[in-house]
Amino acid sequence: MDASSKNQLRQRLRQRLRQQRRALPAAIQRRAAKRLLQQLRKLPEFRRARHIALYSASDGEISTTDVLRYCQRRGKVCYLPVIHRDTKHAQMRFHRHAPGQTLHNNAFNIPEPNALRRRQIDPIRLDMMLLPLVGFDRRGNRLGMGGGYYDRALAFKQRRNAASKPLLIGLAHHLQEVERLPTQHWDIPLDWVATDREIFAAG
Asked: E strand or H helix at 10, and its extent?
């Protein structure tokens, strides 16, 4: 499949899967978030992790609110992504989020910490990153929103002697699974996938 066909297929998948997750009723979304935490708690690496990056859910993404509260109650240091536009290509960086801290909506209407007040961390120093996604497959391929922010932030993982940290776990509703995603050379694969029904090692 050539690059143009891949892009067209990815866009069709993105549109369909976004519609499906947005259509989930609020009650189902809340149950899914609680079940997601139950799945993550099965993973020893999650229980041991000290520095964790999460995300603020939008557009029907599975919520991390319960996961964030769990982590903060157990003294884990949590970080949220912030979009910085001070470079030629906008960059995603990760800033600490303390319990009770006020968040502000960015240009995409997604809540994020105040970058001027909250310190950031180099992603390579994180123990774990919990990533949003639009679609996934069993090989650990991830379909995002199309902006490439996570792929750019994690580009260091593609080097020959790529760092093992952070452990990358994609979070999704189970209905976001597809049999096989078309990939691009810049895509960063996931180590694990956690849904409201299961958690599994990718590959």
From this structure: helix 3-22
Q: Is 118 helix (H, G, I), strand (E, B) or coil?
A: coil
Give Dmax (Cα) for the chain: 48
Spell out the domain ranges in the chain: 3-201
- Class of domain 3-201 as given by CATH: alpha beta
Distance CA 164, CA 31 (A): 32
Task: Give the pLDDT confidence score for residue 86 in this predicted structure.
Answer: 72
DSSP 138-203: TT--EE--SS-HHHHHTGGGGSTT---PSEEEEEE-GGGB-S-----TTPPPPSEEEESS-EEE--
pLDDT digits (tens, 9 = 90+) for 33-91: 999 999 999 999 999 999 999 999 999 999 999 999 999 999 999 999 999 887 677 89
